[in-house]
Amino acid sequence: MRVTKPANGASRAMRHFRFLAVGNAVSSYGSYLNMVALNLFAYHLTGSALQTGLFMALRLGASFLTGLLAGSAVSRLDRKRVMVTADSTQAVAMVVLVLAPVATQSTLLYGIATITGVCATLSSVALRSSIPEIVGADQRVRANALLVTGRSLAMVAGFASAGLVIATLGYTAAFIINAVTFVFAALNLARLPISTRRHTATPTDGGAGEAGAKRESLLGAQLTALRFLKAAPILLAMIGLRAIDGFGSASHNVGLPVLSSTIDPGNPAAFMSQFWTVWAIGSILAQRAVAWWAKRSDRSINERAFAVGAIVMSLAFILAFTTPPLLFGILVALLAGIADGFTEIAYTSRLQTAPDEQRGYVFGFSAMAENFGFGGGMVLCAALMERMSPLAVVAIFHGLAIVLALAFLAVLVLRRRGRGSEGPTEPEPATTGAPVPEPAGGVPEVVNRPTGPTTERDKAGMTEHSEAGT
């Protein structure tokens, strides 16, 4: 069933989403600032690298475990309320840490690590699952580009300002700023008149509806996701590739501080700041280009584009660790950002073609896989860099991602050629709980027909669609 929007409904939905994206960017800034501040504060309180490592591991572990239940939670509960509650909870946690006696703060840190890991994952899964319902499926690529743009800017601002804030104002000020950003995001979202769920949704046999979700266990939630993904193996393969890509991301995140110390021992932070700034510029350029394309093109971003983007991104990060000349290094960092930003949009937009009843489970499963890849990669890379150079470690993990992406791309090309003279068959994303079957021997494409409410363009009979093409 297609719900018709009133006049100017599409533009109003995107206007509301822009406000949501601003709030998300503000809270992301606080999160990146806090990521630096909390890790340094943990070491400041305990004086132990082991305790600091345990704090970081607990945060990653909480994120991973939350992925097991996030799909069930966002399928059962109101997603907007989940996001508001997650932001509010993190704000309260920061205030409690600030007001707590110094003697208890080291103990509270472990609770803070758990809360931030849980709430960040719940909020991310809820938001990514809701975008097609907030703006309509035909606008989801533009919406994803807005979100990733905001997060890229927030990451640069958060990391760049963390040292200055902590050095001049102290840890307490950093935590208060973080709490304020979460309060702003929660209030901003709470006031927006948006719907995060398809109202005509009904429970399915797989337990993906509200009634089914209430009965299922953590294992049941994963089985629900896998049942759907079994009917859409391309999405399952993309999630697997994304998890392997997490190992590659871990390698360059662990390796950059080591490389920076080698390049500029007197001021290693300078190289890292410059690299991530150029990377962010590239990411933003990609996102704005995709948003521009999505507004003007009737073509789609599909899984082949995702695979190509993953290959280019991994190659760029490997080249960055060869310590190229300055100008070439800037171009490499820019290319890494462009490919990273594009790949994020392509991945998220493709997974959002899942029906609303299964979408929360798919993104919950994806969050679990991504956190597993990144967390496991952090541990393995840290151990390997005790024996190997940063370039060797980055080449191994990003090289593995390249090999698997090439294999995935080859399978897609062969399956497409195997269609013969029948031509591509593009299944329309379902508006009910039924899984979207893949065409026999073919690859499902992202289509331009909106699964969400009919836009005013539809009413006017216009054929222009807001779907990015590649």
TrEMBL record:
Membrane topology, from the record: Multi-pass membrane protein
The segment annotated Disordered runs over 419-470
Name of this protein: Major facilitator superfamily (MFS) profile domain-containing protein
Originating species: Polymorphospora rubra
Q: What is an example of a GO molecular function annotated in this UniProt entry?
A: transmembrane transporter activity
A GO CC annotation given for this chain: plasma membrane
Q: Give start-end positions of Basic and acidic residues composition bias.
A: 455-470
Entries under PROSITE patterns matching the protein: MFS (PS50850)
Q: Where are the transmembrane segments?
A: 21-43, 49-70, 173-190, 224-244, 275-293, 305-321, 327-348, 360-385, 391-414
Q: What is its main location?
A: membrane
Q: Which UniProt keywords apply?
A: Cell membrane, Membrane, Transmembrane, Transmembrane helix
What InterPro entries does the entry give? MFS (IPR011701), MFS_dom (IPR020846), MFS_trans_sf (IPR036259)
Q: Where is the composition biased (Low complexity)?
A: 422-447
User: Could you tell me where this protein is found in the cell?
Assistant: Cell membrane
